[in-house]
Amino acid sequence: MPAFSDDPSLRLQEAEPILIYPGYSVSFSYLYEDLGETRVWNPEWDGEELLSLPLAVYARFEPGNGGQAEESAEVLEVVARIRNNLHRSIQPNTAEQRAL
After folding, report:
1. Cα separation of 18 and 15, whole Å?
2. For 24-72, what is each residue's pLDDT tens digit?
3. 67 within some domain
4. Residue 12 host element (H or E)
5. How far apart are CA 71 and CA 32, in angstroms?
6. How far apart are CA 92 and CA 7, in angstroms?
7. So what's the pLDDT on residue 66?
8. Domain membership flag for residue 74
9. The whole model's pTM is what?
10. 10 Å Cβ neighbour count for 30?
């Protein structure tokens, strides 16, 4: 499904959450710019305002104190690159945003 096909908010509200790492907390960062040696990561991403997806998403899973994670649990880090953060022919529906 293209990035700008529709607003998935309703489907996300109806989705059932699944706990993948009990006892862990997760934090996210979003790659805004990749200038070779310099990368700009943001702690939040507002797709409606930026009209694009991030270049990548970084997730850091940390074992929580007193949670279900074992004492020897390690920090887990995942970086997921988003290859097509902008679609070459489908453009965002900015008319709907201007109407607000």
Report:
1. 9
2. 999 999 999 988 888 999 999 998 788 888 999 999 999 986 556 667 7
3. yes
4. helix 9-14
5. 35
6. 10
7. 56
8. yes
9. 0.68
10. 20
Looking at the structure of the chain, the number of domains it has is: 1
Give me the long-range contacts of 63-67 (CB less than 8 A, separation at least 24): 63/23, 63/24, 64/23, 64/24, 64/25, 67/22, 67/23, 67/24
Is residue 66, in this structure, part of any structural domain at all? Answer: yes
56 within 8 A of 31, measured Cβ to Cβ? yes
- Look up the domain containing 32 and give its range: 20-99
- Pick from 80, 26, 34, 91: nearest CA to 57: 80
Do the domain assignments include residue 10?
no
Contacts of 87 (CB under 8 A, 6+ apart): 2, 3, 4
Taking alpha carbons only, the member of 55, 32, 51 closest to residue 90 is: 51
